[in-house]
Amino acid sequence: MKTKLSIWIAAPVALSIVACASFPAPTQHLSDAESAHRSALELGAANNPAAKLHVKLAEEQMTKAKALIVEGDNERADSLLIRSKADSELALALAREQGSNAEVQRATEKSTQTQINNNSQGAVQ
Q1: Count: domains in the chain
Q2: pTM for the model
Q3: Domain, as residue range, for 68
Q4: Which residues make Cβ contacts (< 8 Å) with residue 90, sequence separation at least 6?
């Protein structure tokens, strides 16, 4: 009876140790996070006040995730890399939004100037 009880206790403990140790290194998520981060930087997110915080968070999360991979804590590293990618993508979206807003402003100003020119030249309204 004591042997059966030991098996019932030892089996879940052994399985949980194997399960933790068997989490693969998150190489794909690392590549995805680095790629998203590079894209955000190339679009100028580090210079955008709204996106700057998310760029910094992504960098910190990637650095911590790399350290966790070295320590063998792949599951936590994977979670951090997913968050890092999300922060980089948000920074990228914020940088694009700022660029789009600037384009809209330029187009509006050009349209207004064209309308003024047309009116001054006697265009029919």
Answers
A1: 1
A2: 0.66
A3: 24-114
A4: 51, 54
